[in-house]
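REQUEST FORM: STRUCTURE PREDICTION
Request ID: SP-0412
Submitted by: Lab K.M.
Chain count: 1
Length (residues): 182
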Amino acid sequence: MTDDALHPPVRPAPVKPDVRFLLRHPAHWIALGFGSGLSPVAPGTVGTLWAWLAFLVMRPHMSDLRWALLLAGSLLVGWWACTVAARHLGVADPGAIVWDEVLAFWLVLWLVMPAGGWMQLAAFALFRAFDAAKPGPVAWADRLFKGRRGQPVGWRQGFGILFDDLVAALCTLVVLAVWRWL
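STATUS: Completed
RESULT:
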């Protein structure tokens, strides 16, 4: 990997992601949730819906060990993909990047299963609420790895894209655990 690939020049203006951008690099494909992040409306919600559908399709073929390996691999690959895509877009945490929602919602679903449709719907609504509103710990996690405006996107900011969604997933799981306990 060349130094230019890791540290491309800072762009004067952000790039608007489109289908050409999606297909230009494997990291874009992953970070943009296989195209779900290109939704013109609520890409984070669309990415989470894509994650829910993908989870239900994969679930019959997955053991707990396979889920654990998939999630660990998705964290590492997602860190790389989100960092590269954010650098190429010239924005620290672009809305089109939805791999963070995909990874975090897979984690939520894996840990709440077995669960009926209402519990899964509640998990979806809670996760989206925590991710969008960013209350307390999610706001803290969102600020923790932020870079300054105009600063090149590094690995730290790339991890930050994932981290606040993982905290939103943890908050979702705590609320669902309390709900089940009551």
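NOTES: The two ends are 53 Å apart (CA to CA).
Reviewed by: T.R.
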